[in-house]
Amino acid sequence: MREAIREHTARRGLLWASFLAVHAWNALVGIAMLARAFGDLELYRYWMWLGVDHGWWPVLDTTSVYPAGAVLPQLVAAVGGLQSGVGYAVAWCLMVTALDAAALLVLLRRPHGMAGAWWWTAFLLLLGPVGMGRLDAVVVPIMLAALLWALDRPAVAAVLLTAGAWIKVAPGALLWPLFAVARRPWREVLAPAVGLSALVVGTVMVVGDGRHILSFLTDQGGRGMQLEAVGATPWLLASVATPAITRVDNRALNDWELHGWGTQAATVALGGLFAVGMVLVAGLVWWRRERRGDCWSSDRAGAAELVVRGALLVTVAMIVLDKVGSPQYMTWLAPPVVAALGLGLPGWRRTARWVLVVAGVTQAVFPWLYPGITAGLGIPATVLAARNVILVVLLAWTARAIVTGAAVADHVHRRTDPSSSGTDGHGAPVRAPLTKRA
Predict the structure, then answer these.
(1) Is the pTM of this model over 0.70?
(2) Largest CA distance in the chain
(3) What whole-number percentage of the chain has pLDDT above 90?
C-alpha cells in the first residue's frame, strides 16, 4: 500500500512539475524572447492605466471590444505595475497559472483526470505563449471546470460559462449544449445565466452610465477579414501571387487584415454564414438531444458525450465561420477535449490527436512564422492554410460524431443493460459508466 501511495504521489508530482514548467516556459517566451506573442497585454495595461490614472474605463466610460467582465482580470494584473510592461506581464502570467492550477485540481478528481491533465500540458506546450498572453487564457479554465461539472452541478456550470462570456464571449456559446442535457434546463441553466447577467448589467449601470454595455457586439463591426481567418484562406494564398490582394496592419485592433479584390464581399458573406452556421450547429445539438429522449438519468455517458462533443462542435464552428481568426482562439479547443479525456469518454483519441496538431501548427504560425506571413511569403502562408484546412476537417468530423453518437451511446447503454429494459433486472436504472478508457 505504501509503495502504491508513493508511486501515485510521484506521478502527481511529475505532472504538476511539468504543468508548471510549461507555464513558466510560455511566460519566458512571451516576456523575454518574442514580445509580439504578448502584444495584447500592452493594450490591457494601457487601458488599465487610463482607468486607474485618468478615470477613463472601458465599458464604463467608452466603448470596448470586450464585455464588461474583461476589466476584472486586466485590473488584477495591474498589481504588477502599470508603468512597466514586464511587471504587468509577469502578474498576468501568474494569474493565468493560478487559474489553470485550480482547474487542474478539479480535473484530477475525475476518473481519468491524469490522462486529461497530461494532454492539456502537451497542448499548452504545443500552442505556446499565445495560449497564455490573452484574455482567452483566463476563460479556458472556467470553461473546463464548467464542462466537468455540467452533469452534477449544471447551475454552477451555467454561472461559470456566463461569467466567462462576460469576459470573452466564446464561453457563452457552451450554454447551449449544457441546456440540451440539463434535466431542468430553464431552472438549472437559463435562470442562473440570466440572473448573473442581470447582476453584471445592473452593476455597470450603477457604476457607469450603461451606454456602452453592449458595445463589444458592435465595436468591431467595421473590421475587415483577418489574415488568419479560415474563410480568408483563398485570399491569403492569392495575396502571395498577386498585388490585387494586400495585407494591411490594423493598428487600432492589433491585427492584420486582407484588402483588395473580393475581400469586402467575402467579409459580408462570412458574417451571414456565421449566423446561419451557428443556427445549424445549435439545431444539430438539439436534434441529438431529441434522439436521446428523456433517458439522461439512466445514460450519463450519452449525456456527457453530448455536452462535451456539442461544446467542441460549437467551438470549432465559431472558429471556422468567423471573419476573425486570431491564434488565441485555438485555446477554446482545449476544454472539451480535456473534459472528454478526464471523464473517460470513448471515441476521443483521434480528435485529441488532431487538436494537438492544430496547436502545434498554430504556434508555428504565430509567433514564429508570422512576419513571413504578413510579408506575403509562400511557405509560411501555406502552413497557415494547412492549419485552416485541418480546422474544417475537424468541424466535419465533430458534426459526424454528433450525428452518429446517438447510436454509439445506445450501444454503450445496451452493453450495460443485458435486458435492454433500462433497469438492472431489479427495477433500478442502469447508469452507463463514465470511466471507460478514451
Answers:
(1) yes
(2) 74
(3) 81
Distances in whole angstroms, Cα of residue 225 to Cα of each of 186, 259, 324, 362: 37, 8, 6, 18
Which cell numbers hold the place of 52?
A: 486607474
Which of helix, strand or coil describes residue 226? strand
**Residue 321, SS3 per DSSP:** helix
| Half-sphere exposure in the Cβ direction for 122 (13 Å, CA) | 15
Task: State the amino acid at position 5 in one-letter form.
Answer: I
Residue tagged 454552477 (cell numbers): 156
CA separation for the pair 22, 28 (Å, rounded) = 10
CB 166 within 8 A of CB 137: no
Do 52 and 129 form a contact (C-beta atoms < 8 A)? no
Buried b (16+ CB within 10 A) or exposed e, 279-302: eebbebbeebbebbeeebebbbbb
Reported as a single tens digit per residue, the pLDDT across 305-348 is: 999 999 999 999 999 999 999 999 999 999 999 999 999 999 99
Distance CA 71, CA 66 (A): 9
Helix axis angle, 349-363 to 378-415, nearest 10°: 160
Looking at 68-77, 169-178, 248-257, which range is the least confident one? 248-257
Q: Measuring CA to CA, which residue among 276, 49, 317, 33 is closest to residue 174?
A: 317
Query: What's residue 221's pLDDT?
Result: 65
**62-83 average pLDDT score:** 96
Q: What's the sign of the alpha-carbon dihedral 155, 157, 162, 166? A: positive
Angle at which helices 85-107 and 39-54 cross, to 10°: 110
- Residue environment code for 317-329, b if the CB has 16+ CB neighbours within 10 A, otherwise e: bbbbbbbbbbbbb
Give Cα separations from 137 to 75, 92, 181, 182, 349 (angstroms).
15, 10, 26, 27, 24
Place of cell 467579409: 267
Examine residue 367 and say whether the peptide bond preceding it is cis (omega within 30 degrees of 0).
yes
3-state secondary structure of 37: helix
DSSP class of 225: E
pLDDT in tens, 177-230: 999 999 999 999 999 999 999 999 999 999 988 899 999 988 766 678 999 999
**CA pair distance 183, 166, nearest whole angstrom:** 25
Q: How far apart are CA 32 and CA 224, in angstroms?
A: 31
Q: Find residue 256's DSSP bridge partners.
A: 249
What's the burial of 243, exposed, middle or buried (CB within 10 Å: 0-12/13-18/19+)? exposed
